[in-house]
Amino acid sequence: MRVPWWQGLDLRVLKHVRGVLRRRDLELTLVEHRPTERCAFAPLLADVPTGPGLAVIAPQVSAPELAFVESMLGETALDVAAALREREAPTPRKGYAGIIGAAPAMTELFSLLERVAPSDSTVLIQGENGTGKELVARAIHDRSHRRDHPFVITNCSAFNDNLLDSELFGHTRGAFTGAVSDKPGLFETADLGTFFLDEIGDMSPALQVKVLRVLQEGTFNRVGDTDTRQVDVRIIAATNRDLAAMVKDGRFREDLYYRINVINVHLPALRDRGEDIPLLIDYFLGRHRRNRRPKRLAPDCLAQMLAYPWPGNVRELENEIERLVVLAGDNQLIDTALLSPRIRNFSPSDDEPASDTGSLPAAIESLERRMITAAMRRHNGNKTRAAEDLKVSRRNLIRLVQKYQLEK
Known about the structure:
CATH class of the largest domain: Alpha Beta
Distance between the termini: 42 Å
Number of domains: 3
Oligomer: single chain
Shape: elongated
């Protein structure tokens, strides 16, 4: 059975007009062109008066009555046109290769990654701890022509110089105390694949020279060996440090900086893409529920999490959700009382507008404002989808948006 064209359009005027017409045995239809039969007609596009529109075909109805019906269709057509534009708008992108996000900064990131991944260019990923640098590096590898070859990861801050040297380049038997056999390094392991060097800003200048050689010539020597080895490896580096400032201070080699900074990918902090927090919460609630019943956050709990700045970024948010799922037990609704004290007791800084004197109506208005703002951001201003998300009618959402002056 064909779905009616008006289904899903939460339009009070449309429903009222359809009801009035049906009581008079008249049917409202959506047409592509103005009918040639005698009818009442209102175009959806003001600049195309005979194009698509709402029509009531009724040859038996008198001309004055049709004129009256046509006047009723005017406001309805405006409402329907706006709703159809929103319904036919492309669905906002909400993720890429396991990276969750729909904020403008994230959609730009996804677009960049799509162009970067197929190349062999070196990539430098910068961002605060917990923003997902390893996840981005893996996404680049998985969508490159090297995806069937190794993806190797090492954290440069986890080893001292000697151990990192051996870890990266390998060593020969007897090269140092404890070297009882030859050992290939991670560059050899990553041959034909991708090598992700995390926290490269913590690497010593001596090792920076060796990494630069691999980048420039694709060659290196194992520790204690004179034989030169050749590898074909794509390097993706990451750091939460300001490498440009480190270059100025002489703590990072300028030539290596420019070699790894061919393509720079900056990951935004979670506080700079707050509209993604509900998306991430839903994702992590699903991931960590295991065999438990589906859970959701109470509105005040969600509001508190939206207000919190998340200095630990996505990693901190995921850890908090896992904790909430465990503490909630069999309860489906997660209350504010279960939040970690640092989140539960957080209050906005003094430079943010207060919610009034602490009265209940003011608190409700503050919560409404925050939730509507977050929903509108999540859906890129699409009121129909935001209304569905908030479980309110589209008309009611429009009224609240106007009340709080949220649409500039």
